[in-house]
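Propose amino acids for all 264 sites.
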């Protein structure tokens, strides 16, 4: 489903602040893979997702999605194939539009839009059903402006918007990091349920080792722009945080000093 080959990304090349964010990264995801990506600050996790999404252009390498070269497509043209949920709950929605209007925008993503505007009666029925699946009572508040929702409600709505058209690839970039622990668990549970029930292919970046182990069928660890660990199947299911720390130290040659990775 996703084939990343020899990806290189350098920020501020030729200056004193030059930083190699991705160093010859290659990665292959099969349809239905749910991959959690973990690593310390500056490991290259979010840069990898942003290169796939088209936010950054790589210096070298290629990106294929379902057999299509997408690395030459601008970000807005890749959007029809991708679903994204950001770390900041404010980024994924239009705050001054209603909940149902946000869902209508998501439904029309990547399609031709006429000058007419509105949410059809048929769409309202479907949106109500979809919102009810979140278990947050938003199905009874479809005409409420999104800016009036809590951070957790907005993030759950953004998740729903991201999967509304069944994307070829879902990108979750630390999408629970800005939420309180209880809300973060709820959003992560929703994510896991939707990905499983819809058989979505997904990459989820996280700092939290416990989350990286708990969900998905595959775990990738990055350090200094490289993939240093890739475990899946039964090996991943049996992992503990302590084992993951030892594996990181062994492969990266350094100690994990980021409390967020260990404690969540």
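Proposal:
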């Amino acid at each position: 489903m996703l084939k990343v080959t020899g990806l290189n990304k350098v920020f501020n090349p030729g200056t004193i602040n030059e930083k190699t964010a991705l160093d010859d990264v290659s990665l292959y995801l099969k349809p239905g893979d749910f991959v959690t990506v973990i690593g310390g600050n500056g490991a290259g996790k979010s840069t990898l997702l942003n290169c796939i999404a088209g936010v950054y252009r790589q210096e070298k390498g290629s990106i294929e999605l379902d057999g299509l070269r997408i690395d030459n497509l601008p970000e807005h043209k890749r959007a029809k194939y991708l679903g994204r949920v950001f770390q900041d709950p404010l980024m994924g929605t239009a705050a001054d539009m209603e909940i149902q209007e946000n869902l209508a925008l998501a439904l029309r993503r990547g399609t031709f839009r006429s000058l007419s505007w509105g949410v059809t009666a048929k769409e309202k029925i479907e949106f109500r059903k979809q919102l009810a699946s979140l278990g947050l009572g938003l199905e009874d508040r479809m005409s409420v402006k999104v800016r009036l929702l809590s951070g957790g409600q907005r993030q759950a709505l953004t998740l729903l918007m991201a999967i509304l058209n069944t994307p070829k690839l879902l990108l979750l970039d630390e999408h629970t990091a800005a939420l309180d622990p209880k809300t973060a668990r709820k959003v992560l549970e929703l994510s896991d349920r939707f990905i499983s029930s819809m058989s979505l292919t997904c990459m989820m970046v996280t700092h939290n080792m416990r989350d990286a182990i708990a969900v998905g069928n595959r775990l990738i660890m990055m350090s200094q722009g490289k993939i240093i660990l890739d475990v899946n199947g039964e090996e991943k299911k049996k992992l503990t945080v302590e084992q993951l720390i030892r594996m990181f130290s062994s492969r990266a040659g350094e100690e994990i000093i980021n409390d967020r990775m260990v404690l969540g």
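The chain has ten helices and ten strands. Strands lie at 2-11, 19-29, 34-38, 60-65, 68-69, 82-85, 169-173, 202-206, 218-223, 226-232.
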